[in-house]
Amino acid sequence: MSDPTRLPAWQSLGQHHAQLGATTIAELFAADPDRFRNFSARFGDLVLDYSKNRISDVTLSLLFDLAREAGLDQARADLFAGKPVNNTENRPALHMALRAQAAMRDKPLVFAAAGVAVAPDVTQELDHMFGFAQEVRLGAFLGATGKRLQHVVNIGIGGSDLGPALVVDALRPDIDGRMVLDFVSNVDGAHLDAVLARTDPETTLFIIASKTFTTAETMANARAARKWLAAKLGEAAVDRHFVAVSTNIEAVRAFGIDPQRMFRFWDWVGGRYSLWSAIGLSIVLAIGPAKFRDLLAGAADMDRHFLEAPLQENLPVILGLLQVWHRNFCGHATQAILPYAQDLWRLPAYLQQLEMESNGKSVTRDGGPVTWETSPVIWGQAGTNGQHAFHQMLHQGTEPVPCDFILAARDRSSLPAQHQMLFANGLAQSAALAFGRSAADVAAAMRAAGQDGAVIERLVPHRSFAGNRPSTTIVLPVLDAYHLGALIALYEHKVFVAATIWGINPFDQWGVELGKELANALLAGSDAPADSSTAGLMALYDAAARRR
Ligand code: F6P
To answer: Which of 80, 178, 377, 391 is paired with 234 by a 20 to 30 Å CA distance?
Structure first.
């Protein structure tokens, strides 16, 4: 069943949205003094508060019906059973297998790809990665000139960059003080230049992270870094300063990295789901194996929760269904991710790939056209910075934007008073969005402040807030490895839930291919007729290059 709009629950939700009519979030709160308790869910001490959305218990029960009618139970069972849910590439999506062993329980989930248990491979590669990382961290594995390796430069892009970069920044307080990490992703030489300018070749380890080991940007940066290092320390030094993370052993060997210094993963791990694999090597170098295990354990516990919790208590299910409600019934085209945690500043960019590369699709799993909306535009940045940039539009713009606020109850900085300010600001924003400020309140406040009637009349429209703008708040007890793992896995499964309702495959990304081909053709100076715009712009570049 790939047309969700034909499902009875979809139809009912359409009618229900019309019936909900002008009911406001404020009225929903007024009608239910226990709304926070009734519209929030928990995963251990992580809380998902979805009460500030324009939904009633009828909305929720229809959304759960929609999940059942769209076959979420079966889809989830197929995912965890290692069925080829990525049907266009005939692959399972078993990122959960990378973390299954890490959760402390008698019976970890068991995963098999094409009938073959994957746990032995996962354990072996984890040990390989942990062993190497500890040698580097403890100074047993040294650079070619005998110095300790204390600077790690991860060269990768997309899933081979965004996940590790997110986690390394998010767990900043856990980083061994000696280690400095940089992430180079952009093919723009400015990116690598900037990092190499502060790099001491003798103390630096380059990780070439690429699932395919063919991604043009990564390979260009890898070759440039290798050339730079060989020029500084000699060709023989490359062996001590370059390692690879990939699924492609031949290409790694051809690049000149000994397969012993290659950390493997498998084609059943999608790029944007790969931080749990050897792609996390930079994370392990930064925070050590024990904390990396905590990260895996948080994600594994979220996997179990997604698999076993009833729909009504299931955080990924609730979050995914809310996205469908906002996108398909309320017509909200974008969604803001607002971490009130500076260390999570990369989360919006990370979720852009996770959500939009997964669910930015207009073809159903079986190749039919999609006639309903799929992924919203994901955007955002850390609070409170965003408040002084785009929150004006969130509060008074013409279109409501559903927001996810992500906060940590307990602080890890040295400035607890500032954490209190941060937390209060996050809550204030979601309350202002939901409840706004009426014209009457604004006028009363202005009168109390002694403003004169004409000024009040002129400014009231500008100073009032309609409110009624939806948001969801996730509170982690603390931003540590375990809860970060759980948070990321929560979003992974949320994306799967929405994809299941939309009838699309979230695990492929054919939409990135055409641009790669066209760029290659332009680079090769192909004679194929370019359109006049592309040809004209290319001529500008050629003229500038001639003047260089
Ligand atoms: O952007 C396309 C993509 O294939 C992503 O899905 C992937 O994460 C990224 O490129 C990098 O790919 P690789 O790890 O193979 O270099």
So the answer is: 178
